[in-house]
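quick q for whoever's on today - can somebody do inverse folding on this one?? i tried earlier but teh output was garbage lol. tokens:
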């Protein structure tokens, strides 16, 4: 059975992560203007490299892995090409399916996605939405592709700004939390290397427990928190400084900004 042929336009961080995840399952053709980057990816994943028109012509699935600021120029280039019978998958934040549909004309089948940085080690999570002309078959294929770089969650496109605020930006929240945790540990006299090891493994172990115990975070938190104990003392400080409200406000700000940057 012939493997589906996928053209990945853009070999940056996320484009490279997608290629790393899918290259053993699908036939991949890369379109990348940076010749050095294209050559490196070609050698690493033993795939074809082509110019834009050739790549699109020979592939049935096109992944648009360019940054939002380069998107308009790319769509302008595509207008004069034969674009029939293609599935278009975009990873560009804030660029709606309708925006792409209007630019490409002739009722293109568009899927919009929001992957996140851990896709680079096949541990990402990707929000996926269908455009007006995409089919359930197209959606299943998109999920199959992005399941190779982590897990997928199918949502209505109106929810993608929220997904951007939660999982798209989420790794930065985690890294910021670790930074603060490490500084606090250093303040207690723990050396940097030891603090990093303690904190990273605490996070890994806690997340593994949360995933495998099938119990809520609330229940597990209560298990660690003895009345009058050390954990309760720490949590009272979080509550005093309205940690939950800070988190709620932060995600709301990210969602608001995602809406402001949206192109429809």
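ok took a stab at it. sequence:
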């Amino acid at each position: 059975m012939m493997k589906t042929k996928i053209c990945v336009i853009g070999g940056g961080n996320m484009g490279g992560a997608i290629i790393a995840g899918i290259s053993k399952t699908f036939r991949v053709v890369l379109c990348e203007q940076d010749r050095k980057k294209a050559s490196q990816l070609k050698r690493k994943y033993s795939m074809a490299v082509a110019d834009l028109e050739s790549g699109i012509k020979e592939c049935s699935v096109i992944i648009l892995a360019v940054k939002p600021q380069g998107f308009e120029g790319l769509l302008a280039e595509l207008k004069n090409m034969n674009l029939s019978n293609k599935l278009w998958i975009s990873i560009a934040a804030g660029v709606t399916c309708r925006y792409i549909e209007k630019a490409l004309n002739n009722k293109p089948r568009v899927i919009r996605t929001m992957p996140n940085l851990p896709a680079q080690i096949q541990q990402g999570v990707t929000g996926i939405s269908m455009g007006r002309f995409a089919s359930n078959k197209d959606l299943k294929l998109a999920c199959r592709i992005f399941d190779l770089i982590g897990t997928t969650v199918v949502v209505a496109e109106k929810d993608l700004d929220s997904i951007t605020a939660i999982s798209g930006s989420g790794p930065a929240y985690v890294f910021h939390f670790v930074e603060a945790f490490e500084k606090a540990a250093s303040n207690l006299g723990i050396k940097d290397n030891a603090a990093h090891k303690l904190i990273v493994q605490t996070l890994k172990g806690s997340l593994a427990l949360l995933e495998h115990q099938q119990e809520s975070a609330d229940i597990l938190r209560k298990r660690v928190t003895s009345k009058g104990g050390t954990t309760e003392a720490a949590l009272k400080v979080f509550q005093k400084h309205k940690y939950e409200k800070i988190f709620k406000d932060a995600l709301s700000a990210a969602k608001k900004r995602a809406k402001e940057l949206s192109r429809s």
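fwiw Residues 170-261 form a domain with the ProC C-terminal domain-like fold fold (CATH 1.10.3730.10). also The CA atoms of residues 114 and 127 lie 5 Å apart. so keep that in mind when u check it
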